[in-house]
Amino acid sequence: MFVGIDLGTSGVRALLIDASQRVIGAKEAAVDTARPHSGWSEQLQSGWITATKAVFADLKADHPAEVAAIQGIGVSGHMHGANLLDKNGTPLRPCMMWNDTRSATQAAKLDATDQVRDLSGNIVFPGFTAPKVAWVAENEPDIFARTAKVLLPKDFLNFWLTGIFASDMSDSAGTSWLDVGARDWSDTLLDASGMRRDQMPDLFEGSDAIGTVRDDIAAELGLPKGVIVAAGAGDNAAAACGIGALNDGDGFVSLGTSGVLLTGRDAYAPKPASAVHTFCHAIPNRWYQMGVILAATDSLNWLSRNLQETPANLTKLLGDNISGPGTMRFLPYLSGERTPHNDATMRGAFLNIDIDAGHAALTQAVLEGVSFALRDNLEALKSTGANLQSLIAIGGGSQSPYWVELIATLLNLPISLPKAGEFGAALGAARLAICATTGADPEVVMTRPEIATTVSPRSDLRDSYEAAYADFVKLYPGIKALTQ
């Protein structure tokens, strides 16, 4: 038996599978996020531990024999979070999350520093780890002075499980401290933000074992002694492992809290100016590239809260098929934006609001705005040489047939939907656990899912959506000029 744990923005998910990857059970527990100021987003590490204990307790209650037979654990998690620990491994402050953008000034300074983009392969985004720690150095100097280790979110869970300070390449690539081409910490990048190599965890490939679960934790979770813990992966790399996106052209579109357009790459091909993320994959000798928008289903959830209607009911108003773009426009920059704008201060907007506009029109505008932003991501990926031929859709938003057809048409790519089952980050983490425990070849373990249906672009509506996208592209600089 193997377990994949996914530490998501809203909670912890645990997936229990057997050696043939048959799902035995899955459990979830929520985690609270605090937003004490605009642009801030924090979580308590103790909340992750509490949630992890809860999902194991629920799995054990339903599947006691299977939990007692677990051999390996893999953990995935939201990237870029900054966990500052003292010499005893105790957190000095809450984790600063991936969508915490308070460090925009520090990010801009690091991004302008000589060799930073060249070595890291990426723009230094405000959400990355290094600028967050630089913010702490400037604003909480006592905490910075006591910092002995900095761990990413899933690495903190691995530390709790094993007592070992470790990280994998895919997650570490999003810190601005890793030489992504060389797959090693860069002393030059560390020096640029006042950090030292001894403050970093040891590096592993995601499919490597880092150690075993501590006996006391194993007893508390109902695990046998000696359970192997894999290095794991950042959430998007884990999701790529979950759907078998390992090689050039293998890609997915994720409609989760954030929106991601990702492709595997066989070689390192960064283009930082595009604002495309170029990261190490979770398996050896592979990389991946992705465009990221910060508010995908978050945009729909925002609308849902304000209209006091569920997201599912809002999308049902549109039916299952697109019929052409609306006249209202929505800019989905509710928390700023990454690809292609790298703008932490930009905020969202509605335009062309008509007095007759109701819930359906507002929902259509939101789905179109997110989809236009994903098209921005595709154009950025193309500029790096990426060659996507088709996509698999994952995430909660992929349950809307309307939204999937819209994205397929705007990207002019067929989008496949897997058959019901597990194929996301939790499965990818469990697959990494299989590799770490058994030594199996990732190419054999990380196969693509069985497809239920493939949604083709609507050629009859292609021109009208292309014209609407051309109008959308003009909006960012205009709104930016009005709001700064």
CATH class membership of the domain at 2-236: Alpha Beta
Q: Name the helicity range.
A: 25-40%
- Oligomeric nature of the chains: single chain
Beta-strand segment tally: 24
The fold-level CATH name of the domain at 2-236 is: Nucleotidyltransferase, domain 5
- The assigned CATH architecture of the domain at 2-236 is 2-Layer Sandwich
Which structural class matches the secondary elements?
A: alpha/beta
CATH superfamily of the domain at 2-236: ATPase, nucleotide binding domain
Q: How would you describe the shape?
A: globular
Strand content: 15-25%
Calculate the mean pLDDT score and round it.
95
Radius of gyration, CA atoms, in whole angstroms: 21 Å
Q: Provide the low-confidence segments as ranges.
A: none
Q: Please outline the major beta sheet.
A: 7 strands, mixed
Number of helices: 18
Question: Gap between N and C termini, in Å?
Answer: 55 Å
Function: Catalyzes the phosphorylation of D-xylulose to D-xylulose 5-phosphate.
Catalytic activity: D-xylulose + ATP = D-xylulose 5-phosphate + ADP + H(+)
Binding site for substrate: 79-80
EC number: 2.7.1.17
Write the layout of secondary structure elements.
Layout: E1 2-7, E2 11-17, E3 23-30, E4 42-43, H1 45-62, H2 64-67, E5 72-77, E6 83-85, E7 95-96, H3 104-111, H4 116-120, H5 129-139, H6 141-145, E8 149-151, H7 153-162, E9 166-168, H8 169-172, E10 178-179, E11 184-185, H9 187-192, E12 202-204, E13 209-212, H10 215-221, E14 228-230, E15 233-234, H11 235-243, E16 251-255, E17 259-265, E18 277-280, E19 287-293, H12 297-307, H13 311-316, E20 329-331, E21 349-351, H14 359-383, E22 391-394, H15 401-411, E23 415-418, H16 425-438, H17 442-445, E24 451-455, H18 462-483
Parallel strand pairs: 1-5, 5-14, 5-15, 9-12, 16-22, 22-23
Antiparallel strand pairs: 1-2, 2-3, 4-7, 6-8, 10-11, 13-14, 16-17, 17-19, 18-19, 20-21, 23-24
Helix pairs in contact: 3-5, 11-16, 12-14, 14-15
